[in-house]
């Protein structure tokens, strides 16, 4: 198919999670509720961290950036999905699909890199506590956040530019609730082999080393915690890294499950349902996970709410 045929694609059709008309109101209410909880919860984390000088530490600096990334990540996907459900119109323009895919990839990779940096932060805090503030100085924290964002933007730009060179047939259907990269590649009428090679190569180069770093950091953290003689010290150390470890496990577990499932199972609808976990559920759970057993975060949230709603 020649390149000119690409211009005939004015829109894609996002088939969503279900085509059953009776389920649409339920899906709309469910995803609207999860989206509002996610945005409100992560926004509270950002405001609480920004307003309380006592928690202006590297750990909460990265947590506020993660919350911002989660808000953007959710906002890239869920509002369009809600509009499609409410209007019973599954269409998304070609430009809208590429734009959604680009920003989805930016914030997906940003989450990935920030969680890796947060693992390193917990490693320094627990294994080298006396040098923590020197090693994790504000300059390094800002540099790590900037590098994470820059890498995310460049990777998403690379993938998006490569998709722009593909040709698509008319009436292209995507069996998903957003323009997920692999689903877009599968719907292409031209040969996407080079795109898959780049996708798996970049994923390997920028996915395996951070995951290895996370595993190494936590192996050292657990080893250091077990050597502590104080039970109270062990509990405090576990509480500072337990939330992060939970989020890491959920994100990597669901992400690996989705992509392994799509590789071995021909059912794209099952992959779409599984994708709800890391695109909607985990960003919603993050504020609860990080504040549930964290006394500093709970205190900051109480102070922020008290000042905002009960100023007297």
From TrEMBL:
The keyword Nucleotide-binding does not apply. Residues 41-290 form the G-protein coupled receptors family 1 profile domain. GO terms for cellular component: membrane. It comes from the Eukaryota. Signal peptide: none annotated. Its main location: membrane. Keywords: G-protein coupled receptor, Membrane, Olfaction, Receptor, Sensory transduction, Transducer, Transmembrane, Transmembrane helix. It is a multi-pass membrane protein. GO terms for molecular function: G protein-coupled receptor activity; olfactory receptor activity. The keyword Membrane applies. Pfam families: 7tm_4. The chain crosses the membrane at residues 26-49, 61-82, 102-120, 140-162, 196-216, 237-260, 272-292. Putative odorant or sperm cell receptor. PANTHER family: OLFACTORY RECEPTOR. This is Olfactory receptor 7A10-like. It comes from Sus scrofa (Pig). The gene is LOC110259765.
């Amino acid at each position: 198919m020649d390149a000119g045929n690409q211009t005939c694609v004015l829109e894609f059709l996002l088939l969503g999670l279900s085509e059953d008309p009776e389920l649409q109101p339920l899906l709309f209410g469910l995803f609207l509720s999860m989206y509002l909880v996610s945005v409100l919860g992560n926004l509270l984390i950002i405001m609480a961290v920004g307003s309380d000088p006592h928690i202006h530490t590297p750990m909460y600096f990265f947590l506020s950036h993660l919350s911002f990334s989660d808000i953007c990540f959710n906002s890239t996907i869920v509002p369009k999905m809600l509009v499609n459900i409410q209007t019973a119109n599954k269409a998304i323009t070609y430009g809208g699909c590429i734009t959604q895919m680009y920003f989805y990839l930016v914030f997906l990779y940003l989450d990935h890199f920030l969680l890796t940096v947060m693992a390193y932060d917990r490693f320094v805090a627990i294994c080298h506590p006396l040098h923590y503030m020197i090693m994790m100085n504000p300059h390094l924290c800002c540099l790590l956040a900037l590098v994470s964002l820059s890498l995310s933007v460049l990777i998403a730009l690379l993938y998006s530019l490569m998709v722009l060179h593909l040709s698509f047939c008319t009436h292209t259907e995507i069996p998903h609730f957003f323009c997920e990269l692999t689903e877009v590649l599968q719907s292409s009428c031209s040969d996407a082999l080079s795109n898959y090679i780049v996708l798996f190569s970049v994923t390997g180069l920028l996915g395996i080393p951070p995951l290895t770093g996370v595993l190494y950091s936590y192996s050292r953290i657990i080893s250091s915690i077990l050597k502590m003689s104080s039970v109270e010290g062990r509990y405090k150390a576990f509480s500072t890294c337990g939330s992060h470890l939970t989020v890491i496990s959920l994100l990597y577990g669901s992400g690996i499950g989705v992509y392994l499932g799509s590789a071995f199972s021909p059912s794209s609808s099952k992959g779409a349902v599984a994708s709800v976990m890391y695109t909607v559920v985990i960003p919603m759970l993050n504020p609860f996970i990080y504040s549930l057993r964290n006394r500093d975060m709970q205190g900051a949230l109480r102070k922020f709410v008290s000042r905002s709603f009960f100023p007297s």
